[in-house]
Amino acid sequence: MPTGPWEKRQVLMVVKAYPNPEDEYGEACCTAGVDDDDNWIRIWPIPFRDLRPDQKFKKWQWITATVRKSNDPRPESHELQPDTIVLGDVVDTKRAWTKRLAVLAPHYVKSVEELQEMQKNGAQTMGTIRPREVLAFVIEERDDPNWKAVQAAQLNQQGLFTAPKLALERIPYKFSYRFTCDDDKCKTIHKLQILDWEVAEAYRSWREVRTRRLGSRDALEVLAGASGQGPHLQFRQLHQIPRQIWDRRNRVPTKARATRRQLSERTTCQPAKI
Ligand SMILES: [Zn+2]
Description:
Blueprint: E1 7-16, E2 20-22, E3 26-35, E4 40-46, E5 61-69, E6 77-80, E7 86-90, H1 94-104, E8 108-109, H2 112-120, E9 126-129, E10 131-141, H3 149-155, E11 173-181, E12 190-193, H4 197-213, H5 216-227, E13 232-233, E14 238-239, H6 243-249, E15 263-266
Parallel strand pairs: 4-6, 8-9
Antiparallel strand pairs: 1-3, 1-5, 2-3, 3-4, 5-6, 5-7, 9-15, 10-11, 11-12, 13-14
The structure holds zinc ion.
């Protein structure tokens, strides 16, 4: 698929995944957001840790940047010129997440199944999904807890114009949710991995606490407990909407509150096979 023309776009960034080794930049992270015309935009790769401090956007922050449709066949996939990023306003959480939920509202799909159907038709590969029930927060040790040799070599590349930075750590665990969709078409239990940068940071943070007073397994259980307080998973990304706010805004019956969460699905950030 040919690339599109470069153009300046305004995008509200709502997804930031943990970085991965990448050829061009040594490492890069996948991000995604909604533009000012309400279109999903997946942006990959972004050498986030090499950006200037005045370009490092937060989640829920508007940016202006020069982007173009990448050659990845998925309709939302774009690439970006990193040196063109200009930071804008951060969308706040005031009045019970009114502004943030308004951004997400047009993007709900009924189920993973429906999104998979849309993906098959080439129409859409990103969306927000409301689960009927969240069954488990799953923590698994990776079979490959260290970077592979080729990945380590990619990470060791040092850009000519970038400042030295700490080595990118391979997080030795995978974190996932098991859930069913709030749709009668849902016939299975889904398991989606959480790729959120903040989950990796939560793990690192609790591990540091553990070195002072907790055991490793305790630290992970604390992380699991925190996620049970009512996370908002969006594109496998945790947004910490307090559960009572989410339930109130969506009029969830009291009985369902213990299990109702907001999750969503996206396909991987790596370019799809063409
Ligand atoms: Zn389903």
